[in-house]
Amino acid sequence: MTKVLEVNELKTHFFTRDGVVKAVDGVSFSLEKGEILGLVGESGSGKTVTGFSLLGLVDAPGQIVGGTIQLNGENLVGLPEKKLRAKRGKNIAMIFQDPIATLNPLLTIRTQMSLALEAHARMNKREIESRCIDVLTKVGIPDPAARLDSYPHEFSGGMRQRVAIAITLLHSPGVIVADEPTTALDVSIQAQILSEMRSLARETGTAMIWISHDLATVSSLATRLLVMYAGKVVEEGPTAQVLKNPRHPYTRGLIDSLPAMAKPGEPLTQISGTTPSLLSLPPGCPFAPRCDRASEVCVQDPTPETNADRMWRCHHPMQEEEAVR
Ligand SMILES: Nc1ncnc2c1ncn2[C@@H]1O[C@H](COP(=O)(O)OP(=O)(O)O)[C@@H](O)[C@H]1O
Ligand SMILES: [Mg+2]
After folding, report:
1. At a CB cut-off of 8 Å and minimum separation 6, what does 129 contact?
2. Euclidean distance between CA atoms 118 and 139, whole angstroms
3. Could you report the per-residue pLDDT of 111-159, keeping only the tens digit for each?
4. Which ligand is nearest to the CA of 43?
5. Do 212 and 303 sit in the same domain of this protein?
6. Domain count, the chain
7. Are residues 188 and 41 in the same domain?
8. Are 33 and 118 in the same domain?
9. Which ligand ends up closest to the CA of 180?
10. CA-CA distance, 275 to 186, in Å (whole number)?
11. Which domain holds residue 255?
């Protein structure tokens, strides 16, 4: 297997007036060609900041203060903006939750796609048109040749997000970071887009990091899961194994609160408490105050434990026989 991305001990902190927010605090993972990695966790856990860090899009008061991001063997951390710009869109691209962030309302799809193509490639009009039609077809836009001269507002929400995804595909980047790209869409359109992304990864070998607060969405797509809490990866492993036998109590809480896990007539289980403020984290395991397994030892930082291709960070992990109900 070819590793396209290897992130090691990435730290992105925000230096605010109230203190240092360690939004990403020692995140490590790797991504293979064509792999879809799910990044899941409650709101505020550091998922978006992780994605932005990978593309070098973190702005002041935020800063990458440690770690490495190897894209095809080259460390992006510390690269000058000009070099990053040459890779952004070409080798690594991002899909945002809101396609409005990607699409300019004043320009036709053809113009926007041409600009995106010309940023990294020399192509004539005919080549550009055929490339545009090619990617619009890949994301399931019907009759793409006829839609090229439309403006973003002439597309429905779901179709607009597909166009935004198509733009990220123009240069066939090795890695796509998708940050909650279907959260605003209705469920059936979400399912269609997910299925198209899956075939895309398979057919083109594009690797994806699929970010979502919704474990159900992520696990339908990703072969491996990273569970984030308060800036750290608390659990990692193959999706099926993590769902069947989570080791971290936080992961178990996320699984138990899935609608599909509820017994008929019973209310959904919620993880008690709320996500802690990153400015006042408890010492040791940040989940301890919400955890029903916590003990005195949890005021110390749990060292990551690994077993085969799984990792968890917990003093009192769930055992094999404690599979979810
Ligand atoms: N510009 C910023 N200034 C200060 N803190 C920030 C900034 N952007 C994000 N953060 C903090 O980083 C943490 C992680 O945010 P984020 O990555 O957006 O979470 P997620 O995507 O998992 O919901 C949050 O606590 C947020 O308050
Ligand atoms: Mg986010």
Report:
1. 110, 145, 148
2. 21
3. 999 999 998 989 999 999 999 999 999 888 999 999 999 999 999 988 9
4. 1
5. yes
6. 2
7. yes
8. no
9. 2
10. 27
11. 3-91+173-261+270-319
Cβ contact 134:115 at 8 Å: no
* Same domain assignment for residues 286 and 140: no
Question: CB of 36 within 8 A of CB of 225?
Answer: no
Amino acid at 143: D
Domain boundary among 122, 145, 172: 172
Q: Which residue's CA is the closest to the ligand 1 atom numbered 12? A: 23
Same domain as 306, residue 203: yes
The closest alpha carbon to 189, from 153, 165, 223, 222, belongs to 165
* Residue 81 covered by a domain: yes
Pairing of strands 207-212, 36-40: parallel
Q: What are 226's two structure tokens? A: 């990273």
**Could you tell me if 165 and 179 lie in one domain?**
no
Residue 305 lies in a domain: yes
Q: Model pTM?
A: 0.93
Whether 204 and 281 share a structural domain: yes
Probe residue for ligand 1, chosen from 12, 49, 211, 277 as the CB with the greatest number of ligand atoms within 8 Å:
49
Question: In a 3-state reduction of DSSP, which class is residue 265?
Answer: coil
Q: How far apart are CA 136 and CA 169, in angstroms?
A: 9
- Which residue CA neighbors atom 17 of ligand 1 most closely? 46
Say which residues have a Cβ less than 8 Å from residue 283's Cβ, sequence separation at least 6.
Answer: 299, 300
The pLDDT value recorded for residue 325 is 53
Pocket of ligand 1 (CB under 6 A): 14, 16, 21, 23, 41, 43-49, 61-62, 278
For 94, which DSSP code? E
Give tens-digit pLDDT for 256-287.
988 877 677 777 778 888 888 999 899 999 99
In contact, 79 and 160? CB cutoff 8 Å: no
Is position 18 within any domain? yes
